[in-house]
Amino acid sequence: MALEIERKYLLKVSPQQLIEEGTISLKSEQRIEQTYIAMDTDQELRVRRIQDLATGEYEYTHTFKNGVGLAREEVEYSITKVIYDQVVEAFGYIPLTKNRLTAAYGEMIVEIDIYDQVDFIVVEVEFSTMEEADSFVPPSWFGEEISFNKTYSNKAVWKQLQKQQ
After folding, report:
1. Mean pLDDT estimate for the chain
2. What distance, in Å, lies between the first and last C-alpha atoms of the chain?
3. Which domains are delineated in the chain?
4. Residue ranges of the CYTH domain (predicted)?
């Protein structure tokens, strides 16, 4: 199982401003719909439909995550559109939707998630080691760190959406 090590922050300024100022260089933009099909305290299963906004192409994935905190085990693999549609239709859940900007900030890659159903924007950085994650000093345009705040997790936001049905 691969280990995903990441830190997340609320974004203090608009992504468009960061692009216009040259603070970040946009690499790609995706439209993501994700639905959780099973979850426990420290495990989750989800499916995603991901559209590359430059090409219009779609990708469908199934992901298993295990753990809490900065480092979690993750297994992700591609599935077909047919499987994705069957899973989403079988459960009838409201998907969490967002645009994801992948951008370069110097030598670092950042991912910025702009959500449709909630009023906040998250920037995340992935690391190769826990030492890198622990020694990371965020730039001034990053806001409050939310890596350990479950209120902002995709899983928690998605759960709130289901209560609104």
Report:
1. 95
2. 35
3. 2-163 (2.40.320.10)
4. 2-164
Answer for the pair 125, 136: CB distance below 8 angstroms, yes or no: yes
Shortest CA distance to 34 belongs to which of 110, 123, 116, 94? 94
| Helix, strand, coil in percent for the chain, rounding step 5 | 20, 50, 30
Q: How many CA atoms lie within 13 A of 135 on its CB side?
A: 5
Identity at 50, one-letter amino acid code: I
Distance CA 76, CA 71 (A): 15
The C-alpha atoms of residue 87 and residue 90 are separated, in whole angstroms, by 5
What's the predicted TM-score (pTM) here? 0.94
The amino acid present at 8, given as its one-letter code, is K
Q: Which tens digit of pLDDT belongs to each residue from 74-117?
A: 999 999 999 999 999 998 999 999 999 999 999 999 999 999 99
Q: How many residues does the chain have?
A: 165
DSSP state of 146: -
**17-70 per-position pLDDT tens digit:** 999 999 999 999 999 999 999 999 899 999 999 999 999 999 999 999 999 889
The DSSP bridge pattern shows strands 108-115 and 58-66 to be unpaired
